[in-house]
Each structure stands twice: as C-alpha cells, then as structure tokens.
Design brief:
Layout lengths: L1 E7 L3 H16 L2 E3 L8 E6 L4 H20 L4 E6 H6 L2 H5 L5 E3 L7 H9 L4 E3 L8 H4 L11 E5 L1 E2 L10 H5 L3 E2 L2 H13 L4 E5 L17 H9 L6 E5 L8 H9 L6 E3 L7 H6 L6 H14 L4 E8 L6 H13 L4 E6 L18 H24 L5 E12 L2 E8 L4 E5 L8 E9 L4 E5 L3
Parallel strand pairs: 1-2, 1-3, 3-4, 4-5, 5-6, 7-10, 10-11, 12-13, 13-14, 17-19
Antiparallel strand pairs: 8-9, 15-16, 15-18, 16-17, 18-19
The structure holds S-adenosyl-L-homocysteine, iron/sulfur cluster and FE3-S4 cluster.
Length: about 450
C-alpha cells in the first residue's frame, strides 16, 4: 500500500475536505500516515484567510521540494483555498508540484491520481459553484479520530465582507441536500461519533437556495435531533442578523442541540462594521446577544474580532474592547487585519494601519479576551455539568481526562481511567483562563 500524508492548515471546512480526500485516496490504495517522511504522496490543504497562513503553505512545499530531489518518485499536491485562488501560478512558484487542486473540484482527486501516476501535471481549479452531493455519496469519509464529526451543510458564502477572501476561495453559497447530510450524520453516529457539528460560513442561510422545498436550519436540527441515541448537536457559524427566533428556540427545546452560539462580531464600532459590509451595528448585535442570553439558560456566546481594520481609529478600537467586556463574551478568536488580494478593503492602502499599532491593538484585544474568558469560567464554579470526554493523558505524572460541556467549555478532571467518548457528570471546582477544573461525580 502507498502512503499519503496531508497537512491541513485551515478551518473546519478545510479539515472536512481533508477527511473526504483521505476517503477517496483509500479507494485508490493509499493509507494515511502521520509521518510525512514516510509518505509516497504529500498533500497540503491550504488556507488563505491571512497572509501568514498562505506563507506557511509556501514554506512547507519548499521543504517538500527538497525531499523530492532525494526521492524523485515522491508526488506532491497543493490543495485548498490558496490553490483555488492561485491555480497555475503555483507551478511557476514551485515547478516540482505534481497537482494543484482547488476547493471546487475535490471530487476530481481520483482522476488526478491516475494522471499524476502517468507522469502528468494537473491543475483542477475551475470554479463550479455546484454542490457536490452526487459525488460525495460515492466515497467514504475517513474522519479524524475524535468524538466530534464535522458535517458541512452549506458551502461558500455570499456576504462579501470587505476584508474576507472566503467568497473568492469557496464560491457562492449553496446548501447541501438534507438527504446527503442525514446520511453523513447517521454514518458518523454509527461509527461511534458522539457529537455532530453542522458547518457553514453562515449556517442560518441554510436552505435559502432550495427551490423545491421550504426546509431551513431549524428543520434540519429537528431531523437530526430525532435520531435515537445519546449524542450532541452543534452548529457554526452564525451571522448575527440571520439568527431566527426559531433557531434560538431549538437550542432550548431540542435536547441534543447544545447551548452554544458562535456569532462573530468582528468590530464593536458601528462605523467600522459598515465599512466591513457587515449588515448590523453595535446596538443590533447587543440586542441579539441579550435575547439569546435571556432565552437560553447557561448559554455561551463566542465571537471573532479583527484588530486594525483599514481606517480604524483608536476610539473605534476601544469600542471593540468595551463590546467584548459589556457583552461578557465567553471566548473570542482574534486576528490582526491582513489585506487579501481581490477583496475591497485591500484597495484602501492609504487607510492601512501601521503594523506596530495593529499588533499593539491585537495584544490589548487578547488581554481583554483573557479577562472575559476567566470571568466566564468563574460563572460555572460550583455547578454540575455534563461533560463529553475527549481525551485521556498523563500530565506531569497525573492522569487527567479532558472534555467539553454542552456549552463548549473545556474541563480538566483528574481521573485514572480513559473515558473517551463517554458522557459524565462533573462538579466544577475551579478554573483557569482557558479551562474549568472539575471532579467526576460517581453514582
Ligand atoms: N463566516 C464567518 C467567518 C469565517 S473566516 C463569519 O462570517 O464570521 C474566520 C474569521 O477570520 C473571521 O470571522 C474574521 O474574524 C477572520 N478574518 C477573515 N478575513 C480576515 C482578514 N483579512 N484579516 C484578518 N482576519 C480575517
Ligand atoms: Fe467571510 Fe463574511 Fe462570508 Fe464570513 S460572512 S466567510 S467573514 S465574507
Ligand atoms: Fe477556511 Fe481558510 Fe479557506 S478559513 S474557507 S481554509 S481561507
């Protein structure tokens, strides 16, 4: 059997593509290896959300190119979001690459493998904007070892936030058919996964493009929830103004749907939000978050923020800090603005914030995030929470199991037995910035 190694650099959607590519490759006699040096086929699944992620991909293939000099039979593939964007240009940069595979064409991987094995160079980066449901059902998905299965429900994005590359790398928004999704959910549950995360850039748009049926995210959640057995359901990412009351109610009424919303705010300043082409202002976001907190007990709300968007003033940046604080956000992903080719904001060069200021703001954003996380964690001390165990390890001589609560808090519990995949009740005894400490409650 030949061996394949895939380095996955991007988001959950990118990880999900990797699992599908492993599935297709296993049909062609390739087995996965965790050791790139042992591989006959090396693939990088790239991300272009920021320049840094793109640069990482180039330096990795640079290293692999050197290995190929010593091992001429080695095949190298360049896939994912950077591939979709750069297509043929990758061959100019790295002539030793055997194939470039964009996000729209992942199901052409089997035919690519045949061609490269005949010595051809292949570039499959045409934009199709079609759902790949028909292809998807033909192959297994070799999911990563985990308790959680990522299941894409929409592909692409129509929002065109002015900083973001995703609509260019993933194309127009399209919903996958409920039949395909349900099949993947059932397969994952039958293989022992205990948590289903429905994935999309804007999950609330799910179903908007169906012409033959009225079927939206809340309907899908109800259908998944009706499957028998003990498991959890999550959905990410939510766009603030697209969250419907119906969806919030599902988190309360459906027993398997978890009390967790990831709703990126991006900036706390209404003026900046307008320039970002986000369709809400500070007040609207506050109202939505308030509504969710009121309706869903013990809910956690997490967000993403960008520091140093073009033209952002110190006052506007401070509005982001106060928003994080006043909203008591439970956790936020943070990033310094990175100009991306083709996007609208990348053309506002005269408004770019200098690097020092940008990174100084990012550091303050991170500090505020730490404070918010700690405050959020403290709220749960003394409570009893259900934890789905994800891991067992020996840390500095002590056995620890780690897992997540329904509202997505990480919990560390001293325990001598590996309970990975089990649901346990845990008393929260303390916390650190990034996790809770707990004790298992024995019946
Ligand atoms: N669909 C999600 C976000 C997907 S991209 C949403 O609408 O919120 C993930 C995160 O990357 C974004 O939320 C944003 O905070 C960050 N991001 C996107 N483009 C960026 C850029 N050019 N520079 C810095 N961060 C960026
Ligand atoms: Fe990017 Fe905006 Fe689409 Fe999210 S909603 S993927 S930030 S364009
Ligand atoms: Fe994901 Fe990065 Fe592409 S965040 S959609 S892998 S640009």
């Amino acid at each position: 059997m030949k061996k394949v190694y895939i380095e996955t650099m991007g988001c959950q959607m990118n990880k999900s593509d990797t699992e599908r590519m492993f599935g297709m490759l296993s049909n062609f006699g390739y087995e996965e290896t965790n050791e790139p040096k042992d591989a006959d086929l090396l693939m990088v699944n790239t991300c272009s959300i920021r320049q840094l992620s793109e640069d990482k991909a180039y330096s990795l293939i640079g290293l692999w190119g050197k290995w190929k000099k010593a091992k001429p039979d080695l095949k190298i593939g360049f896939c994912g979001c950077v591939a979709q964007q750069k297509a043929q240009q990758i061959f100019k940069r790295a002539h030793y690459i055997d194939f470039v595979l964009g996000t729209h064409k992942i199901y052409s991987l089997p035919s690519i493998i045949e061609k490269i094995n005949k010595g051809e160079k292949v570039c499959e980066c045409e934009e199709t904007n079609a759902t790949e449901d028909k292809e998807a059902v033909k192959f297994n998905i070799n999911r990563a070892k985990s308790v959680n299965a990522w299941i894409p429900i929409t592909e692409g994005c129509n929002n065109f936030c002015t900083y973001c590359i995703v609509p260019y790398t993933r194309g127009r928004e399209r919903s996958r058919l409920p039949e395909t999704i349900m099949k993947e959910v059932k397969d994952a549950l039958n293989s022992g996964y205990k948590e289903i995360t429905l994935l999309g850039q804007n999950v609330d748009s799910y179903g908007k493009d169906f012409k033959d049926r009225d079927y939206r995210l809340a309907d899908l959640l109800k259908e998944v929830n009706s499957i028998e057995g003990k498991f959890r359901i999550r959905f990410v990412t939510s766009y603030p103004t697209d969250i419907t009351d119906d969806l919030i109610k599902t988190a309360v009424e459906l027993d398997k749907v978890c009390e967790y919303f990831h709703i990126p705010m991006q900036s706390g300043s209404s003026e900046v939000l307008k320039k970002m082409n986000r369709r809400y202002d500070r007040e609207t976001y506050f109202k939505i978050a308030e509504k969710i907190r009121k309706m869903v007990p013990d809910v956690t709300i997490t967000s993403d923020f960008i520091a140093g968007f073009p033209g952002e003033t110190e006052e506007q940046f401070v509005e982001t800090l106060t928003a994080m604080d006043e909203l008591c956000l439970d956790y936020s992903n943070t990033a310094a603005y990175s100009p991306r080719e083709k996007t609208v904001a990348a053309k506002w060069v005269d408004k770019f914030i200098d690097e020092d200021t940008k990174f100084e703001r990012l550091a303050r954003l991170n500090e505020q995030n730490r404070k918010c996380c700690l405050a959020s964690n403290k709220k749960f001390i003394g409570k009893t929470m259900e934890v789905l165990v994800e891991n067992f390890e020996n840390h500095k001589g002590k056995n620890i199991i780690t897992g997540r609560t329904r509202n997505n808090k990480i919990v560390h519990i001293p325990y001598d037995k590996d309970l990975t995949g089990e649901f346990i009740n845990v008393k929260i005894t303390g916390c650190k910035t990034w996790y809770l400490n707990g004790e298992i409650i024995t019946e």
